[in-house]
Amino acid sequence: MKNWEADDSDEYCAAAADLADAESVCKQLNIPLSSVNFSDQYWDRVFEYFLSEYKAGRTPNPDVLCNKEIKFKAFLDYALEQGADYVAMGHYARVDKHEDSFCLLKAKDQNKDQSYFLHLLNQQQLSKSMFPLGEMNKTEVRALASENNFITKDKKDSTGICFIGERRFKDFLQQFIPAQRGIMQTPEGKNIGHHDGLMYYTIGQRKGLHIGGSQQGDGSPWYVADKIVDKNILIVVQGNKHPLLYKKRLKASMLHWINGQAPDVPFSCMAKTRYRQADESCAITRIENNTCVVEFENPQWAITPGQSVVFYDGDNCLGGGIINSDKNE
Asked: What's the angle, vertex CA 93, arms to CA 123 and CA 311, rounded to 5?
């Protein structure tokens, strides 16, 4: 499956190498290989949204939308048209049928669990999906590949955004969105530098600010705490314990519930606001117009508009939404 055409040279994109690896494994297993191109659908359904979010000053997660619109929609539809009964994906997650409903469960390997990226899947998509790696640890998967001497046995894990590849994020983004330099300020309104464009920064970011900690304040590192989009101002604070980096409340929109039904509120559950985060206790206190308010038991670090908040009941992923505010409204 190929999803990107714009600049897919070997310098940036691993598509050609991935195809060669797939051909090698399929030949070894004596199974046919088909190739299909979804780059147009990816551009329309994922990449244009990605750009619009950055233009609005938010930090989107394209992998979440790619799963919903491409892997489990465009590709799933294609596979079913070819006569497939199911699609088997390499995500670390599990599907379980409970009575008449399909549940999305965390993977056995909690360190590799990817249910966070799959929270927008619906009942039809889950009913046709299989996750063979969900019951395995990553070490077991590597061992199985080694036993069969697959060419991919030592292949490094894929990380980051697929269409950006190995290039610098800044270099990629400025091809599509003109940068507008602006002022970098403390919460008290003190100007301490310039930023290269709000789109290049995300809440909690430390690297790339180019503010010498030893030259300012108490010498602690600086972090992005907020963006004032209409004034093109980046708010930065010193120290990762600064109170502006912690919030107990967020608002999320574009809600999706895997079982198709929103819970009655108030509703207590666990949630995470970023992939590499432990589940945190919270309560969904209000749901209206496909928007909800989430109150956490403990303050959360660097809640980031544009990212996903995903809800859990134990291993069961309930669904989630897109964070559109961390303000105490």
From this structure: 65
CB crowding 123-139: b at 16 or more within 10 Å, else e? eebbebbebebbebbee
Higher per-residue confidence, 125 vs 167: 125
pLDDT value at 214 more than 50: no
Is residue 194 in some structural domain? yes
**Separation between Cα atoms, residue 22 and residue 25, nearest integer Å:** 5
- Whether 38 maps to a domain, the answer reads yes
Domain residue limits at 74: 15-84+137-147
Evaluate whether residue 27 is within a structural domain.
Answer: yes
Which three-class secondary structure state does DSSP give residue 89? coil
Q: Average pLDDT of 120-125?
A: 97
Secondary structure of residue 319 in the 3-state scheme: strand
Q: Which residues are catalytic?
A: 66, 162
How many other C-beta atoms are found inside a 10 Å radius of the C-beta of residue 312?
22
The confidence score (pLDDT) of residue 212 equals: 64
pLDDT of residue 325: 72
Would you give the end-to-end CA distance of the chain in angstroms?
43
The H or E element that residue 234 is part of is: strand 233-238
Which pLDDT score, from 0 to 100, does residue 97 have?
93
Question: Tokens standing for 22?
Answer: 């797939």
- What is the pLDDT confidence band of residue 117, given thresholds at 50, 70 and 90? very high
